[in-house]
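Much of what follows relies on a compact textual record of a protein's fold. A record is reproduced here so that you can trace the correspondence yourselves:
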Amino acid sequence: MALFILGLVIFFSAHLFTALMREPRARLAGKIGEMPYKGLYSLVSIAGFILIIVGWKGADQSVLYVTPVWTRHITYLLVLIAFIFLAAAYLPAGKIAAGAKHPMLAGVKLWAFGHLLVNGEVRSVILFGAFLAYGVIDRIAVKKRGDMGRAAGPVRNDALAILVGVAAWAATAFYGHKFIAGVALF
């Protein structure tokens, strides 16, 4: 459990430093350069992520709650929408990206909430709860900074985000989830 928690602390410390400590982040990037800063940020995040993965197996699997089987279908829908938001975050902006303001954070929150809905063991509640908390904290920080996201582009950008999001969701749901999490969904 210690490696799992350490990984979460490292991973989210890197992300929250960037989200909440804008001036120290700018000073550090100014001192070492923007690309070296991004490289350092990436290395720290990857190290945390690896510790999360390595620590996952040894983390507490005690069950805190069990939800009805039908909640899986709600999770499938929430995660599908999350994938569309994630695609919209990295493709040219459309109405989805503009409406969500920060679609990556919206996607992370939906993904985490959906997983909390169907995974009641301690390690899952800690993992997905941490991602949900991060998404909420970062969104509040973004709003305080006055970052209102991107302006809406043409509807074809939404069509592309939906297409990419649905394709990525399908690939993950039908193939990747078993490989990534060890659990076949379908």
In short: The radius of gyration is 18 Å. Helices lie at 2-20, 22-32, 34-56, 71-90, 95-100, 103-118, 122-145, 155-181. The mean pLDDT is 95.
